[in-house]
Structure formats: C-alpha cells, structure tokens
Structure to design on (433 residues):
C-alpha cells in the first residue's frame, strides 16, 4: 500500500527523533514568547525553553488540561493574531462554553496532508469515492475527512450525518467505495440496508474508516461481516487537531501516530509520571507544528498502550492500541462526548426535576443506548399523568437540543434513587469496551 508522505512516514528512527526535538524546541519557544498562559505556567514550574535539551526533557514541562481551554475561552491560548486565522472548529455537546480551536492557513494545509496520510494508510486512493458521513460544521470530523479526501485526489461526497435511507441511496447510486463515519453508524447503515432489502455486498463499497468513539475488535468483526467491508480505526481529538492524529494501516495492528507532528507520551493517570512503551497509561500529546493553537502536553484522558516495534507496512511511526477507556467520566454516546455534569445541568434546568438521577448506558446490538432516571418533586408526582408526561417530554427535548443525544427518560418517584454517603454513583455503564 502506498504511503502519502513516505519521506516522513518511513523516516528512520534517529532522524525522526532529531526532527521532533528541533520542532519541540521551536514550539516551546513560540508558546513561551506568545502565549501568556504558557509563560506563567512555565515560570511557576521553574522551567524555561532553554531547559528542553532532549526529548525526555519534555517531562519537565507542565501539563495542559481541558479546563485550561475553558478558562482561556475563546482565544486565550492562541499563538497568532486572529487576522491570521482562516478557520475555527469547536467541541460539540457542551452546556457551557465549547473548546475553541483556531487554525492558520498552514495548519489547514498540514491537517489536509495528515488526513490524506490517514486515508492512504487505510487503503484509500485516487479513484475511490468517499462518502463522508461524519458531521460537517464545528465538529472536526466532517471537514477533516473532506479536505483529506480531496488532497488525496479521491472523490468526496459530503453526505454529513444522518438520513440513513438517503445515505444508502447515495452508496448504491454514486458508486461509493469508502465510508467515513463512526463505527456505530456503519452498523446502522448495514442494518437499515438489510431491512430495506439492499445487499451492500453487491455495491462498490469495500472500506470504512471509522473513529471518534471507542470500539472493540468484536465490533470490527461484526461490521466487516455485516457490511462485507474492511473497517479501519483512526483516532483524533478537537484540542489537538481533530482526526489526523493516528490511523491504522491495512495490517490493523495499532494506529500509527503521525509523530513528525505530534509527540506522544504515556503517563500514569494518577501520578502523571512518564511510563515506558508497552505499558498502558494515559496518552499525553504535544503538537509540534501547529501555529494557531500549539498545545503542550495535553492530557487526553484516553487510556492506551504504545508499541514502538517496526510495522511490516514500512512505517516507522509508533503505534497506539485501541482506546481502552477513559481516566475521567466523559461518556461518548454514539460519537458525542458528554460529561455527567452536563447532563445534570440540563436536567436541573427543567422545573419539577430534583437533583437525583442516574444515567444508564448500554449497548444494544452495538449501538449506544442511554436511559436517564430522574426524580421529580412531590408536586409533579402527585399531579395528573399529563403533567408528568409533559415534564418527561421537556427533559427529553432539552437533553436532545443542548447535548445532541437522544436519551430515554424515566421519571421516578421522589426518594427512589439510592442515596449514598460518599460519591453518588451517577453512571452505570454496562457497555463492554
Ligand atoms: O472525535 C475527532 C475525530 C473525528 C476522530 C473523526 C476520528 C474521526 P472529539 O469530538 O474532540 O474529536 O473527541 C475526542 O473521542 O479523546 C477519544 O476519547 C474519542 N475518540 C476519538 N477517536 C477514537 C477512536 C473527535 N478511534 C475523543 N477510538 C478522544 C476510541 C476515540 N476513541
């Protein structure tokens, strides 16, 4: 399989390390000079850019967290003037302020190349027809894959999310060979196709490039069998760039991290100490080339293992395992990130709802399913059935419009949800990920 940028993707280890160090030193100098947040944090930690003499010295720099983005909303972490920014993306599904990610023209250019790498690595090439069913808009999936597909010279159909029947029509009529969407959506497509009597195996579709949510090898096997295609994993996150951080090659033995642009570390999620390759821990990422929003040592909260052994595909870049869990309580429901606290604030915005609730997440035939049990006040409960129905509908609609997730709502009597003395167990996650 051809590489998009073999000069980097197959770069000898030593050369790659030199390039990373040079880029890291430059980025650290940049943020120190241009972003007051980093200068202050470095000063508090007693480090200066001159202290970064080797790649290992990165461990001396302070971490960056999601909250740092929120605290510096909207443009506080930016390292270039807004007039040099050509695009802004943002995280989805938050009740508070979103995480805002600006890009310079060069950032967009590099991102398109990284996405072309992703696609080429998955086995996509010029001549392929990519149906892009990631969401277009502030979410990075849509435009990320769009630009990558075009950069590769493939044909891109900007289908965006939803409208499953139309998606199937496009697959059948437009000669789609590659699907870009969440793994759970491939299964929705496959099941809807079966119900409609459409045989996906007789279409041109042969590959899906899936990501944005956790999935297992079991789920891959199911997708591949049901849709008659190959499914390839790819990983990324808004704060760092969007998709385009890492992608599997056709061998499916871990996702190659594009290390010439992102420096990956694994740390102990509790102590923050660096862990060696081969050990599972929290992935920490530093951007090496981003201009508009360089990020130093971002705590992803994703639990992974890194494998440095050379891959038979010829790429020298380190591979990461599938994401095996999160170190925080962020839930990903059908590709949408949501924290229990966000659900809580939506619930409590509805009159008659009490601050006692439980969130039950399950996977029904590989699709995330969320049910929220919530207590209502005595007054509502003793009211007519109609009043209860109205509250239920209001909660459902609010959760849907503010967080973008469709949940089943179950209103329960006052004092039915177990009270604990310690931390309330708000989430019961029955998914096996
Ligand atoms: O999900 C970017 C993306 C778009 C990746 C399209 C791949 C494809 P966020 O919405 O910021 O960005 O969510 C990032 O999603 O920290 C992981 O917890 C999770 N995640 C992303 N890709 C994978 C994956 C996009 N392949 C968060 N496997 C990350 C497991 C994933 N989890």
């Amino acid at each position: 399989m051809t590489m998009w940028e073999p000069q980097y993707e197959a770069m000898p280890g030593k050369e790659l390390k030199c390039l990373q160090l040079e880029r890291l030193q430059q980025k650290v100098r940049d943020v120190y000079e241009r972003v007051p947040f980093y200068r202050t944090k470095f000063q508090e930690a007693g480090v200066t850019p001159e202290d970064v003499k080797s790649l290992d010295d990165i461990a001396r720099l302070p971490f960056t967290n999601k909250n740092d983005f929120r605290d510096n909303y909207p443009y506080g972490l930016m390292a270039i003037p807004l007039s040099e920014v050509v695009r802004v993306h943002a995280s989805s599904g938050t009740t508070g302020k979103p995480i805002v990610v600006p890009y310079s023209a060069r950032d967009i250019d590099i991102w398109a190349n990284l996405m072309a790498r992703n696609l080429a690595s998955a086995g996509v090439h010029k001549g392929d027809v990519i149906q892009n069913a990631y969401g277009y808009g502030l979410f990075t999936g849509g435009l990320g894959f769009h630009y990558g597909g075009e950069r590769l010279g493939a044909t891109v159909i900007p289908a965006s999310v939803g409208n499953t029947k139309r998606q199937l029509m496009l697959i059948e009529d437009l000669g789609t060979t590659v699907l870009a969407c969440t793994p759970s959506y491939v299964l929705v497509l496959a099941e809807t196709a079966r119900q409609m009597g459409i045989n996906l195996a007789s279409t041109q579709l042969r590959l899906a490039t899936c990501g944005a949510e956790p999935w297992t090898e079991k789920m891959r096997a199911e997708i591949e069998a049901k849709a008659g295609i190959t499914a390839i994993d790819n990983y990324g996150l808004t704060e760092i760039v969007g998709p385009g951080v890492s992608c599997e090659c056709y061998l499916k033995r871990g996702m190659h991290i594009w290390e010439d642009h992102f420096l990956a570390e694994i740390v102990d999620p509790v102590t923050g100490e660096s862990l060696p390759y081969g050990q599972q821990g929290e992935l920490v990422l530093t951007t090496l080339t981003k201009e508009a929003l360089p990020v130093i040592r971002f705590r992803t909260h994703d639990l992974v293992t890194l494998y440095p052994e050379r891959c038979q595909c010829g790429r020298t870049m380190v591979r990461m395992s599938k994401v095996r869990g999160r170190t925080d309580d962020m839930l990903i429901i059908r590709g949408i990130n949501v924290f229990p606290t966000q659900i809580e604030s939506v619930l409590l915005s509805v009159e008659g709802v009490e601050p006692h609730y439980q969130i039950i997440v399950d996977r029904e035939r590989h699709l995330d399913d969320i049910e929220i049990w919530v207590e209502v006040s005595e007054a509502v409960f003793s009211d007519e059935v109609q009043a209860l129905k109205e509250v239920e509908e209001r909660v459902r609609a609010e959760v849907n419009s503010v967080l973008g997730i469709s949940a089943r709502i179950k209103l329960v009597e006052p004092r039915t949800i177990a009270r604990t003395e310690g931390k309330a167990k708000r989430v019961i996650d029955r998914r096996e990920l």
